[in-house]
Design a protein that fits this description.
The chain is of the alpha+beta class and 283 residues long. The protein has helices spanning 5-14, 25-31, 37-67, 98-102, 139-142, 228-231, 256-268, and strands at 78-80, 85-89, 110-111, 118-138, 147-155, 162-168, 173-177, 192-204, 212-213, 215-221.
């Protein structure tokens, strides 16, 4: 039984060919009958779904790109030194303490459970040269638990802590950098050299009482990434002891022949580092 023109148009429409221009909108509406409302709705939903998928994927990619953290410690010659420190908090809820704070899972967090200001104390096992301090907060998830005013202190002990940074945050989402440039430490004056770092959370958004911190990272210079030249201690000018080149300034009053005889004597009778040193004898 041959199909009618209207049936062919419906087939074209259902196959997504309406969008390609084979069937105009006027022709389509004329040929679709009362029983074709479902077909029209399905096709429109399909077309809208395709557009939403395309836009959705694009927006998802954009959101993912915006969420990427540009901080790359390897490229900056830094290494994390959390393992060199003991972390302590002034208070915490069960299941939301230091372990959750140091976890790489940003869905976990430290939640305080006491009076403000809430304190996080980082006590290092030795004196460190800090180049970066970063912590993670998320206002979209935590709202009134998100800090808005934080003061940072550092020193050699609890008795000599000095304020070195202060942050005011407004609806923050993501990793926050603590300003430590010009702290005075290191070869360039941009390092924070200390034993202890303290973080005092004085206020939260919406006058919230307790706080959420979802992660913290401390970084120092990575000697391995700076190259062997940076790790070698400073040395004086090297002397070439070959027979064909004996610099005159190194002779210290000896002529060339005497210096060569002295070097030959050292080669024939080397001094061993393992020889025992005799005790001085009083005569």
């Amino acid at each position: 039984m041959p199909r009618s023109a209207a049936t062919d148009r419906r087939v074209h429409f259902a196959g997504g060919r309406y969008g390609s221009g084979e069937v105009s909108e006027e022709e389509l509406m004329q040929d679709l009958g009362e029983g074709d409302d479902e077909l029209l709705g399905d096709a429109m939903t399909e077309d809208l779904g395709d557009e939403m998928d395309d836009d959705g994927n694009s927006e998802a990619e954009d959101d993912e790109g915006m969420g990427d953290d540009p901080f790359n410690p390897v490229e900056l010659g830094l290494k994390e030194i959390n393992n060199l420190a003991h972390f302590g908090v002034s208070s915490h809820r069960p299941g939301s303490g230091v372990a959750e704070l140091l976890s790489d899972d940003l869905d976990k967090y430290w939640q305080s459970d006491g009076q403000q200001p809430h304190q996080l104390t980082i006590h290092f096992l030795r004196r460190v040269e800090i180049r970066a301090i970063r912590f993670y907060v998320d206002y979209n998830q935590d709202e009134s638990y998100t800090p808005t005013h934080i003061v940072f202190y550092a020193g050699t002990g609890h008795h000599d802590l000095i304020q070195f940074a202060e942050l005011t945050l407004t609806n923050p989402v993501g990793w926050q950098d603590v300003p430590i440039a010009n702290s005075g430490g290191g070869a360039d004056g941009h390092s924070l050299c200390c034993w202890i770092v303290q973080m005092h959370i004085k206020e939260n958004h919406q006058n919230g009482k307790d706080t959420h911190i979802r992660g913290i990272k401390i970084y120092a210079l990575d000697d391995q990434s700076l190259g062997s030249a940076a790790r070698e201690p400073a040395r004086g000018p090297r002397m070439d002891l070959s027979a064909n080149h004996v610099p005159a300034p190194a002779a210290h009053g000896l002529n060339e022949q005497s210096l060569r005889e002295l070097l030959d004597a050292f080669e024939r009778h080397p001094i061993s580092n393992t020889e025992s040193v005799r005790e001085p004898v009083i005569r």
